[in-house]
Each structure stands twice: as structure tokens, then as C-alpha cells.
């Protein structure tokens, strides 16, 4: 309004109304109906974190590198400490996995887990051996595609949601004896 | 079987028609506002409450939530006005729609007072936003004070041009009688008689009912819902979340009668003999009202929010000028037509 020519202002108002009418009549929707459709993560998912306790050396690098202090070292019956993750604080950055010198922590693509209570989010080392049970979702993977040549946004169905990948085999690094 | 005469009273039918249809229109318009905004913003909008109807009953769910919510009256507020003003707001917002006829024979008022129907409706609608300032005072909270002060500045800015737009149309039609006004729009509607007055009406109503881009007094980004900042539950539903839409309905009904020709192409016969003709005329008025409201709520999806000083300078500098030009056009038509 200020410093703008009147003609330009009127034209801008009419333009935006025309654009709104166009989208009202012919909408382009980006919404992914999450429980019924799953967005395509292109394989780059950082999910639930598993633990092989037999590889763990209790070096506590994971607990120290954790940016949100989600990892706490729990004393087990054998007198050693193993990491347990609080998923109420975990931001799935997987720094602990990167930092682990013996590959005791391993990544998975399990992402659709939810909890009813805060206590359920505290994973102790024995719980981290078994992946959480994830409800079966309606298997549609969709992807939002920007068709720049046509100036449109469309949602395409990429494929079916497969089963979660099997857990990776234990890497062949020598077990550090302590 | 003889139908009792009170059952065919035009007052009863006008009251019922207005009450029922305004409720349906309000439900639909809030749903339409959300859906249009969602479509323009590439979302879906209300969906899960009734998936087959596109989420139409979302508003009923919201209303149930508002009614069931705990009523909180803050300690510092002026309790009497805090409780009394929201119902008064809705009453004054809905009352103007009962003051105008919906067809030549379907009106709540009878002849000598019906002559002043539109003028009375405008007077009540301009009282309405004094109540908003009163709400800001009764809430007794600094954000409510700020919101009420902003509302008061905007009231001063839009009232004169809006009144001028209606006065121009009265000058064009040479009457203030709503039935004669509609009769004069049989071939050409008022918006074509005087487009400038129509533009002033559109902008003025957008300012009066806090439509975008003039949602300034109660814009959440600036002051937390302005004068209504301590309202919750049923109070919020009666003012900010519902009452404003009822005011929009009343303004749009006036606009449909004065600018869009009311029931113009339909000329129903006398009341009890031609019941269906009169009801069709009333339905046609409501369709025009709905179209106007649809435009006003559509603005939410495409417009930014103007700043208060920009709005005031625009209103006093340009809107008032356009309103005066509209008066000049009407004065010319008064002598030429």
C-alpha cells in the first residue's frame, strides 16, 4: 500500500483472488493421510536402536556423545553397565551408533512405534535386544512429486509397504575381551 | 381440515425461516471457510468427523467441545459484563436479520416500522462493536485493552464509509423502504447502479466483521485474540468463534437486499395464497447472502493481515474518498434517473 501504485495494488488483489479461486476449484494436495498412507523415506530412516550386549565394552562413549542425555548406563547382574535409551528424549540422531567402537549398537528402520505411558519409553538394556512390536499399517507408500514443467504438485503411489528389514547380522569385528 | 390462521402467519414463517436457514448457513459457511483455506494451502481440512460428507459435522463437534468446556471467569474481570456481554453480542448480531423482509409479504415487522427496517438494522449493527470494546473493558487484561483500543480505532475508520455506502444507495433508490428498494432492482441490481458503493460495502464489511485482510483487533499473531483474550468455553463460542459469523450473516443479508437485488427476479403473490412463491423468494435471498458470505470467508485463504496503521490510513484516505465518490455518483443518478 505504502509506496505502491494504486493500479499495482488493485492488480495484485485481483491476481491473488484469481489464484485462490483456481486452487479452490482444482486443489493440489500435499497431505499424506499418515496411518493409511506412509511417506516415502527413500530408505533413509533412522529408527529404533538395538543393542548386542555381548559386544558392548561399557565404554560409555554413547552416553557421553548423546546430545539429549537420553542414554543412561544400567548396572546389570554381571556387574557391567550397558546403555539403555529413553525414547522420550531420543531424537534419533544415531550419534551413539556412529560413536560405538565395537558396533554393539545397531540401527534399524523401525519408526512407527508409540507409547501410552512415559515409563514405557525407558528402554533398559534387556529390552534393547528385542525390537518393539509395531502395528501393521495400511501398506501404501506415497511420494509428493513436484512436476516443475507443468507447475503442479502431485502425490503418486510408490509401492507397497514391505516388512521391516531383518536385523543385520552381527558384524565380524573381534569381540573385545575386557 | 381447516388450517388455523396463526399457522399461516407471515411473522411465524419469517421467524422460522430466518432462524433455521441462518443456522444452516452458518454451519455451512464455517465449514466452507476451513475447506477453502485448506484447498488453497494444499491441505485437506476437516475430514475425520464425517469422512463421507467431507468433515461437515466438524463444527458441531467443536460446538459440543465449547459448550462442555469449563466456564472460567477471571478474578480481575468485571463479572456482570463479562457474563452479560457475550449473549448480548449474539443477540445484537442476529437481530438485524429479523428486521428486514425476506419477500414482499414475509417479514417480522409490519408496515410502518418495516419502512425503517434497513436503517434500524444498520443502527443495531453499529452498536454491536461498541460491545466488543465493552468486552475488552470487562475482561480487564492488558491484551484485551490493547485489542479493544485497536477495535475502537477500526470502528471509527469503517463506520462512516460503510454508512455512506448505504446512504448512497438510498439516494439512488430515492427510498429507504426495503421492499421498494428491491422492487427498483428488478432489471439492474444495486451493485451495477453504483459499483463504488458496492466496493466500499465489501471493504467496510470485511473490516467490520474482522475478515482478512483486516483481522487486526483479534489477530492471534499480534495480541492474543484481542478483546476476547480471557474468554473460553461458551463465551468464546458466542463472540469470537460464532458471533462474528452471525454479524457477517446480518451484514451479508443487508448487502443482498441493497446491492444484489434481494428476491429481485422472483415476484411472489400475496402471502397465504402464494406460500411457495414467497418461500422461494426468501430462499433466493438466502442464496445471495450465502454467496456474499462465501466471498468474505474466501478472503481468509488468500489475504495477508494488514497492519493497523496501514488499515487506518487506507480507510481514512481511500475508503472515505471512494465513499464520497459513490455519493456523488448516487447524487447524479438521483437527478438523472
Quick structural overview:
Chain A: Pfam families: Fer4_7 (PF12838). The complex is a heterodimer of chains A (178) and B (337). By secondary structure, chain A is α+β, with helices and mostly antiparallel strands.
What is the residue-averaged pLDDT of chain B? 88
How far the N terminus sits from the C terminus of chain A, by CA atoms, comes to 74 Å
Number of helices of chain A: 3
**CATH architecture identity of the domain at 48-129 in chain A:** 2-Layer Sandwich
User: How much helicity do the residues of chain B have?
Assistant: 55-70%
Structural class of chain A: alpha+beta
Write the H/E string of chain B, N to C. Answer: HHHHHHHHHHHHH
Show unreliable segments of chain B.
Answer: none
Distance between the termini of chain B: 51 Å
Helical stretch tally of chain B: 13
Number of domains of chain B: 1
What's the overall geometry of chain B? globular
Q: H/E order of the elements of chain A? A: HEEHEEHEEE
Number of strands of chain B: 0
Q: How is the CATH topology of the domain at 48-129 in chain A named?
A: Alpha-Beta Plaits
Describe the structure.
Chain A: One of its GO terms (biological process) is aerobic respiration. Chain A: GO terms for molecular function: 4 iron, 4 sulfur cluster binding; metal ion binding; NADH dehydrogenase activity. Chain A: Keywords: 4Fe-4S, Iron, Iron-sulfur, Metal-binding, Repeat. Chain A: Residues 47-76, 81-110 form the 4Fe-4S ferredoxin-type domain. Chain A: One of its GO terms (cellular component) is membrane. Chain B: It is found in: Membrane. Chain A is an alpha+beta fold. Chain A has a domain at 48-129: Alpha-Beta Plaits (2-Layer Sandwich), CATH 3.30.70. Chain A contains 3 helices and 7 strands, in the order αββαββαβββ. In chain A, the strands form 3 sheets. A 3-stranded mixed sheet of chain A has the order 1-6-7, with no helix packed on it. In chain A, strands 2-5 form a two-stranded antiparallel ribbon. Chain A has a two-stranded antiparallel ribbon with strand order 3-4. In chain A, strand 3 and strand 4 (81-85) form a beta hairpin. Chain A is elongated and about 80 Å long. The mean pLDDT of chain A is 80. Chain B has 337 residues and is mainly α. Chain B has one domain (74-336). Chain B has helices spanning 10-40, 58-68, 79-99, 111-114, 117-139, 142-173, 178-183, 190-193, 195-208, 233-238, 243-258, 275-302, 308-336. The longest helix of chain B is centred in the middle third of the chain and has 32 residues, at 142-173. Chain B starts with 9 loop residues before the first helix and ends with a helix. The mean pLDDT of chain B is 88. Chains A and B meet through helix 1 of A and helix 1, helix 12 and helix 13 of B.
